[in-house]
Amino acid sequence: MRMDRNIKERGHDPYAEARKYPEGAYCPECGAVYRQGRWIWSDVPVRLGNPVLCGACKRVRDAFPAGEVRLSGSYVKKHKDEILNLINKTVGQATSRSPLKRLMDIEEAEGNLVVRLTDDHLARRVAHAVHRAFKGDLRVRYSLEERFVRLQWQREM
User: Does residue 147 lie in a domain region?
Assistant: First the structure.
């Protein structure tokens, strides 16, 4: 039996913060500040530390979401405003607590919606909020090689 084999990492996230940044580092894009080992929103704009792009801004820049929620069916067409209000409220609550949890974009095509987010847990939270509020069918698929989740919600009238 060989002892020098390479063990593959189960899930790879190229945007994971593998290192700690110096205290007071800030993101020049969104204004988040790195304090006590995590990114936070600061009450006062800080520009004294090192400028470092946070993980969410890197994902937005690269157009590489961590989660995607696809909403389809005739119900989406008829109740689009209500669904979008719920999505924006859910995302707004998460973003106010953590700068790394953000909405990248919402794309509309043929009455269907595709919501892309910077955090896989936020994608699940959005999809489950829509499912709780409007019922329908929800399917969850995780990627095995990278940290990505795709959720499909569908409801017909």
Answer: yes
